[in-house]
Amino acid sequence: MATGWAGDGAVQDQIDATVEDAVKRARSRLQKGPSLTRCEECDAPIPEARRMAVPGVRLCVACQEAHDREEAAFSGYNRRGSKDSQLR
Predict the structure, then answer these.
(1) Suppose 57 and one of 24, 35, 69, 71 were both cysteines; which one would form an S-S bond, judging by CB atoms 3.0 to 4.6 Å apart?
(2) Considering only CA atoms, which of 85, 70, 76 is closest in space to residue 22?
């Protein structure tokens, strides 16, 4: 079957690049430094177990969930997975 402009491993390369981008983005968002004892958004106490599990934590669970939902709504456009991809 003819592949057109795409090389033999183009689909796997696209998948690998998408995964690498997601890993880099996730790592760049990890907090650094000491954890806070109180949430910087609502001033609720952050339990010690959360501070130990998530180094550099700055938000309580409720505020973090709200932040994650908000961020997911503006996650951007995945050009690699678009119907206009050059791998058609």
Answers:
(1) 35
(2) 76
Tell me the pTM.
Answer: 0.54
User: Which residues, 6+ apart, have CB-to-CB distance to 67 below 8 Å?
Assistant: 41, 59
The one-character DSSP state at 67 is: H
Q: Which two tokens stand for residue 86?
A: 């050059």
DSSP at 38: B
Successive 10-residue mean pLDDT values, the chain, 88 residues: 68 91 86 89 94 90 90 63 53
Q: Supply 27's token pair.
A: 């790592």
